[in-house]
Amino acid sequence: MTRPSRLFRDGVTTFALLALLGLLALKMNNPPELIQTGSFYVVDGDTLARDGDRFRLLGIDAPEYRQQCRRADVDWACGEEARRALDKLMKTGAAECRGSEHDRYGRLLVTCKAGGVDINGAMVRSGMAVSYGGYAAEEAAARQAKAGLWAGEFERPRDYRREEKMGRGGDPLAGLSDYLRQFIGWDR
Fold it and tell me: Model confidence over 144-183: pLDDT tens digits?
């Protein structure tokens, strides 16, 4: 074999080995995807529980359980309604939730399906949750249809939580730290 062809062969082999090592390093860096199937207890419009573990629906934010919204100048329990909507969706078939990352509270961030329905997207599409980085088209459709929350006035769930925290004597800078966590990505 001639020297240039041997150099070429050795270079290609070295490149292939380095690429393989790089792929293995990336694979080892990614946490494994966890799959949970079966029945879940619905805590609120975006949180599930099972066997002592909590799961947060990824990419959505639903009203807090005690949160009130306003429609046609009448208050309504939008947080309770969001919980009922999620409970109904979770019972449309065998539920399967998948995720690989946890939020700052230790909850596994999941995308759930039941009966072939993307539960996270369905909550936003029905207007019972807002998009939190992933369901913009579903939110636009709900907004246009004036579905759920969009049929009246409501406070975004994150704003409601911040005000509740401040009302209980919480840190006045809590909203800023929440924003920074979200902006920088610390809440994943």
Answer: 999 999 999 999 999 999 998 887 665 555 555 554 554 4
Report the CATH number at residue 65.
2.40.50.90
Separation of alpha carbons 151 and 108, rounded Å = 31
Q: Which residue(s) pair with 117 in the sheet? A: 114
In a domain, 162, yes or no: no
CB contact at 8 A, 149 and 68: no
95 token code pair: 């539920």
Distance of alpha carbon 173 from alpha carbon 133, whole angstroms: 23
Structure tokens given for 138:
């579903």
Q: Is 17 inside any structural domain?
A: no
What residue has token string 């529980």? 49
Tokens of 48: 């599930």
Q: What percent of the chain has pLDDT over 90?
A: 64
Judge whether 4 lies within some domain.
no
Rg for the chain (alpha carbons), in Å? 22
Structure tokens at 187: 């809440």
* Residue 138 C-alpha from the chain's centroid: 14
Q: Give the domain range for residue 112.
A: 34-155
